[in-house]
Amino acid sequence: MPNVLGLDSSTQSLSAVILDTDSGEIIAEDSVNFGNDLPHYHQPHGYDESGVNGEVHANPLMWLEALDLLLGQMRESGVDFSAVMAVSGSGQQHGSVYLRSCFGEKIAALDSAQDLKGQLAGCLSRESSPIWMDSSTRVECEEVAAAVGGDKNVCAKSGSIAIERFTGSQIRKFSKINPRAYAETGVIHLVSSFLASVLAGKNVAIDHGDGAGMNLMNLAAGEWDEDLVNATADGLVEKLPPLAPSATISGPISPYFVEKYGFSPTCETVIWSGDNPCSLIGMGAASPGKLVISLGTSDTVFAAMPEPRTDPNGFGHVFGNPAGGYMSLICFKNGSLAREAVKEEFDLGWEAFEKEGLAATPTGNGGLMMLPFYEPEITPRLDTGGPIFSQEAKPSAEQSVRAVLEGQFLNMRAHFGWLGVEPTRVSITGGASANDGIAQVIANVFGVPVDRLDVPGSAGVGAGMRAAHALGGNLAELEAAFCQAKEGSTIEPEAGAKAVYDEMLVKFEGFLGEQG
Ligand code: ADP
Ligand code: XUL
pTM of the entire structure? Predict the structure, then answer.
């Protein structure tokens, strides 16, 4: 079986991997960092930092420019795209792109002598895209929930209560604050389906994995839910692309990519999914049994579900599993964002953060606890940021490092009980998973071994595996080839640590409760 390309348009970067499904090897990988490589957007972490009242937007043109830049630099470095038989991708979830009807015609007739950004800028009916970090739509969530008989109903239909960062409430807000631009919008894409459409040269479907993160899809039916769509905004149903299973082939790649980067005209495009559903595949966790913790900009915890169940407290979500069935997901906004805040406050490198910070402090930090929410949090829902310590005296750098990590993973334990999973192993992924100290704290807090896989980025690899799967590849064989634990990378829990954290969890939950 041939080479496949997996792309990953995440919060901070766009990356690519080419999987050789014959040899089971990754034969090319590269990435573009939005902040470093495209500084003219002034979005150093991939989004506009000047938003107010919880608004967090990114520039969709930056994603297009990144696609040209990445494919161009790969080609220059000698990558042969003509051997790629299928391409799919992963997008940061929930973010939405608002386009005039001309988008469909424009992407069908792209001129390879020009770039994507210049040709498609005029198609945007909204200059910026709200992304998953946006928490500005509390009112709209309440309005949608009230219109369909309460959050219980929203959750029963869509797999999640009405959530600020989910696309439905974001669309509603746009329709309210800018009805004219909303009326001029012909199609609303997710980050995933936007880039998938550009590759395919036509508007393509949203998959059931990413579609479930919109509060608009009926989870059981895999179709737009009439009540939710009508409660969200007038005329919305005509602006939504269709929904489809993740393994849908949308047709050959657009001539733009054939002419410009040397893809084969027979290279198939497969619809994209969200980064968490793609990571589920890339971590070899498509079947129930494995708990995955992803340590990216946000931290997420996810697992394939034996049967769909929802979080009674409303924090967790149920999405479509790209391999069929469902997956659970809990998202913590203060992932790397909070770890970086401590690192920067004390001017530490990652090595010092890991080695000195943790070596100098005992398991349990002598009773010192931190609620590690530097920014407004999603789980639990907190409108304001700022870490809170259980003691008044200012903690040292070392204590702060331990406190942020213990706080993050105790907070995970405090919120994942509804999954009904008692993990016997945890697999970790994402930028921070390379950090042994962080992996050790996870192993100790959960009391189980922590594995790391031998993949450069599980979302991109998962996207490539999805492309191969859609072309008829066997998922179990792909997992055996690409999802093995890296040799020598397993971190065992330290003796006695779990007991310290079992006791600390009770206090942590009390401390959380005190903050309301
Ligand atoms: P995303 O997909 O959300 O853009 P990634 O999974 O690529 O994020 O992770 C990026 C983050 O990983 C960076 O923001 C950084 O904070 C973190 N990171 C990178 N290397 C390390 C390390 N050695 N230790 C801890 N965190 C790290
Ligand atoms: C999941 C979530 C984030 C984004 C960005 O619900 O909001 O994990 O997908 O990675």
Answer: 0.92
